[in-house]
């Protein structure tokens, strides 16, 4: 009962714990066994041609372009590979999140992890140095931020990531043999010990039955006086054997 409660709690806690995410940057992605693809866009190809960063170049040469095969796909096909698992695909978030909302399940959305390939690009309005329009541009951008117009435009052009609803009871969770392998080992040991004890009991019962059958046989065949003599001789023989064992 104690072993059952222990392994029941162990399996339950292992299922409720969060899975550890070991891919947090490009270096982890490069050292992992995942296949990598890139959205077929001109600015993506131009980035790999012009960048001097070592890790993106290694990622490009080792996983994106291999054996004269370029892993440049459109967004729909690339996200379908991500949905199957074991694949990393570089794509614009606005396109990726829109496809995820339409095709991914709740569990698959929660399992998706994002890693940044491009460094953040900061843009701004261009104006001549000392221009009189500099103040007007700053005031206009501030008013757009205060009124929420910038967030409105961003929500239209940039899709948000679908929410991760972690409802474990709504999906099937598989339990590996690793979680309860020790319980099976204890169970097999218990079966083995029980079989050994059963064989010993059968052997002892068989010996007792043979002795009883011999006694019944001699009781029928021999007269009462001879049977008593046989019984006393048998007792004396046992005593002699006991004495011999003690002396040894």
UniProtKB/TrEMBL annotation:
Superkingdom in the source lineage: Eukaryota
CC per GO annotation: plasma membrane
InterPro entries: Insect_Ionotropic_Sensory_Rcpt
SUPFAM superfamilies: Periplasmic binding protein-like II
Subcellular location: Cell membrane
Membrane topology: Multi-pass membrane protein
Sorted UniProt keywords: Cell membrane, Glycoprotein, Membrane, Receptor, Transmembrane, Transmembrane helix
Main location: membrane
Gene3D superfamilies assigned to the protein according to its UniProt record, in alphabetical order: Periplasmic binding protein-like II (3.40.190.10)
Transferase recorded as keyword: no
KW RNA-binding (keyword) present: no
Membrane-spanning ranges: 180-205
Protein name, UniProt field: Uncharacterized protein
Species per Swiss-Prot/TrEMBL record: Parnassius mnemosyne (clouded apollo)
């Amino acid at each position: 009962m104690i072993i059952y409660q222990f392994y029941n709690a162990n399996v339950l806690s292992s299922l409720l714990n969060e899975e550890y995410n070991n891919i947090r940057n490009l270096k982890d992605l490069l050292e992992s066994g995942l296949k990598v693809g890139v959205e077929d866009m001109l600015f993506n190809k131009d980035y790999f041609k012009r960048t001097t960063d070592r890790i993106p170049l290694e990622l490009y040469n080792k996983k994106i372009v291999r054996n004269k095969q370029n892993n440049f796909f459109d967004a729909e096909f690339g996200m379908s590979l991500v949905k199957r698992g074991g694949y990393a695909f570089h794509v614009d978030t606005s396109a990726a999140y829109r496809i995820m909302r339409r095709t991914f399940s709740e569990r698959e959305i929660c399992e998706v992890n994002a890693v940044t390939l491009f460094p953040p690009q900061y843009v701004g309005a261009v104006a001549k140095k000392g221009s009189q329009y500099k103040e007007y541009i700053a005031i206009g951008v501030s008013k757009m931020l205060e009124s929420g117009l910038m967030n409105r435009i961003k929500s239209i052009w940039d899709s948000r990531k679908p929410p991760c609803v972690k409802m474990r009871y709504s999906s099937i969770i598989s339990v590996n043999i690793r979680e309860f392998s020790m319980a099976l080992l204890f169970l097999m040991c218990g079966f083995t010990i029980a079989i050994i004890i059963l064989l010993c009991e059968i052997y002892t019962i068989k010996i007792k039955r043979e002795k009883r059958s011999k006694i019944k046989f001699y009781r029928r065949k021999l007269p009462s006086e001879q049977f008593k003599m046989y019984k006393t001789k048998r007792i004396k023989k046992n005593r002699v054997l006991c004495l011999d064992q003690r002396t040894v």
